[in-house]
Design goal:
By secondary structure, this protein is mostly helical. It has 7 helices and 2 strands. Strands 1-2 form a two-stranded antiparallel ribbon. The model has no long low-confidence stretch (mean pLDDT 79).
Length: 173
Amino acid sequence: MALLLFLLRHQLAALAKRVEEISFPGGGGAKFRDEVRDAQSKLEKLTDSDPTAGTTALPPKRTVTPREKIRNRYADLEAAMSLILAQLPLDIRRQPSDFIFYDLRDFKGSYPLYEVYSRIRELASMALYADEKALSENDARDFDELCATFLEAFTIQFEEFRKRLATKATTSE
């Protein structure tokens, strides 16, 4: 608790300068300035009596596991594809998997794109349920590279689809 007060002392002081008192319906309320002064005086007493109070090291950051890296990269891939698809008119906008399957599959040479996307989804699912010891940093790195390459191919196919869509719109007018 002392560490928390020590770390937040500047924010508490700033809060006290902005808000002195707050009242709630039914007679409840709080006087921040008095509360902050009490907390600051307690903190000063603690730090004066214990010279190591302000030098306590924060706990080390938790490392991100390969499973989490794969899960996060898959979520980022889905989000990136959704942002790309947001450029389409609402009436033809779809989920990334549906767009790849229904709209890009008939497009020249894009069927492998759906196969790769399906494999990426399978790999992400397998990583989610795999034993943590079975996944390595190399697996996460390979998955990241696969997703980056896929996103490049998806972007190229999407741009060609958009051009084809624009051509259809101009010829139908």
